[in-house]
Write a structure and sequence with these properties.
This protein is an alpha/beta fold. It has helices at 12-24, 36-45, 63-71, 103-116; strands at 4-8, 28-33, 50-54, 56-57, 60-61, 76-80, 96-98. It has a five-stranded parallel beta sheet, sandwiched between helices. A hairpin with a 2-residue loop joins strand 4 (56-57) and strand 5 (60-61).
Length: 120
């Protein structure tokens, strides 16, 4: 089913590609944030079903955004060129889709994220 998704990605071409993939999968992209302050504000206020978080945002880590989402009971998945190696304690068990990812890999990660419900 269609999900309302927040994209947090600092590389604009990757964000645009991800948005296209999500639309192809039938989802609605509510917003895209490219920097930590905007991403944190959006995570606090937007009506979303899921967020996809690039771990590294122009030198900042997206873990504060993940913490806001946890507090709001909004599932999230991480996207990273480093796979699970970019995760810190407290997030090591979260779902990660490794860049570059295919449409099917993205779809599987979204299904897992939503079915897992609230992150631990």
């Amino acid at each position: 089913s269609s999900r309302r998704i927040l994209i947090v990605e600092d590389e604009m071409l990757l964000a645009m590609n991800l948005e296209d993939m999500l639309i192809d999968l039938g989802h609605i992209v509510v917003a895209t944030a490219t920097r930590l302050p905007a991403a944190t504000a959006m995570a606090q206020t937007l009506d979303i079903d899921l967020a996809i978080l690039d771990i590294n945002l122009a030198g900042s880590r997206s873990f504060p955004v993940a913490e806001v989402l946890r507090a709001r009971n909004v599932p999230f998945i991480f996207a990273s060129g480093y796979g699970n190696h970019g995760l810190i304690d407290g997030y090591r068990d979260e779902i990660v889709v490794a860049k570059p990812y295919s449409l099917r890999q993205l779809e599987t990660a979204i299904e897992r994220g939503v079915s897992a419900g609230v992150p631990s």
